[in-house]
C-alpha cells in the first residue's frame, strides 16, 4: 500500500468520482450478469448524489457516452489510442487535475494506480485514490441500510393503517 492510499487526501470539495466500472462491477459480483453495466449505473444512481463518471471497457470500435442525472457512462472505443478503459481513466485524471477541479479515482487496478500516482507526483495536484473494494463495501452498506430504512418505513405505515382502521371501526 502506498502512502497515497493513506495520506494523500484531496480537499473536501472533490466533485468528480471517476470509477473503473468493470473493476467495481467485479468487486460487486456483477460481471456475470447480462447487463451488468446497467445494473451498476442503477446502483451508483441510488448512492450519494456526487458526480460520477463510470468508465467501461468498450464493446466496439466507436465507443459511446451518455449522461443520466449525476452519472456519465463512458464506453471507451477500441482503437489505436484506447486499448482499454484504463487509458480513458488516466486521461480523465489528467484532465481534472489540470482543470484544478480535482477528482477521486476508484479502482483496484495496479497499473492505473501507478499511472495516477505518477501524475500526482509530477504535479502535486488534487487527485484522491480509493480502492474499488473499499468503495464496493461502502456502496453495499449504504444500500443495505436504505433497504432496512424502507422496510421499517413500510412496517410503520402498516401499523398506522391498522390503527386508523381500528379507530374507524369504533
Low-confidence stretches: 1-14
CATH class: Alpha Beta
Structural class: alpha/beta
Largest sheet, in brief, is: 6 strands, mixed
Count of folded domains: 1
Tell me the CATH topology.
Rossmann fold
Looking at the structure, what is the overall shape? elongated
Fraction in beta strands = 15-25%
Task: Report how far the terminal alpha carbons are from each other.
Answer: 67 Å
How many beta-strand runs? Answer: 6
Summed up, the helix count is 6
Percentage of residues assigned to helices: 40-55%
Average pLDDT, rounded to a whole number, is 83
The main sheet orders its strands as: 3-4-2-1-5-6
- What is the N-to-C order of secondary-structure elements (H for helix, E for strand)? HEHHEEEHEHEH
CATH architecture: 3-Layer(aba) Sandwich
The gyration radius over C-alpha positions equals 20 Å
